[in-house]
Amino acid sequence: MHADRAKLFIPFDALTGFDEALRKKEKCVKKRLVLSEDQIEYINEILSQLEAGDMAELKYYKDCESGYTAISGMISDINTERNCVFVDGKKIRFKDIYDIKLL
Asked: Are 66 and 75 in contact (CB under 8 A)?
């Protein structure tokens, strides 16, 4: 009888994976850097000059676990409506760009 009653108090995880998702959010150790006005102006100037086919190197914020990463390659598209640039098919949002150089 006591064993049946103990079963009532077994923990129940109604949202499978929720605890793990929360732990991943807590591990965000590599935060996005705040750009100065000069940096923002420089990046915007370079972005306005870019054309499909140009070669460029971008340093951008990937995520809170990886932090910043760099990519070099050909600009395949610039989408000003969606505020992103495609480098070798990889979509990079304008707001994630930390540095950009034309090659």
From this structure: no
The per-residue pLDDT for range 9-23, each reduced to its tens digit, is: 556 566 677 777 766
Other beta carbons within 10 angstroms of residue 56's beta carbon come to 19
pLDDT digits (tens, 9 = 90+) for 20-56: 776 666 666 678 889 999 999 999 999 999 999 999 9
Residue 57's DSSP bridge partners are: 72, 101
Comparison of pLDDT for 2 and 32, the residue scoring more = 32
- Contact between residue 103 and residue 61 where contact means Cβ atoms under 8 Å apart: no
Provide the CATH topology of domain 34-103: SH3 type barrels. (2.30.30)
Q: Domain segments of the chain: what residues?
A: 34-103
CA distance 90 to 84: 10
* pTM of the predicted structure, to 2 decimals: 0.70
How many CB atoms are closer than 10 A to CB 91? 13
The tally of CA atoms less than 13 A away on the side-chain side of residue 26 is 6
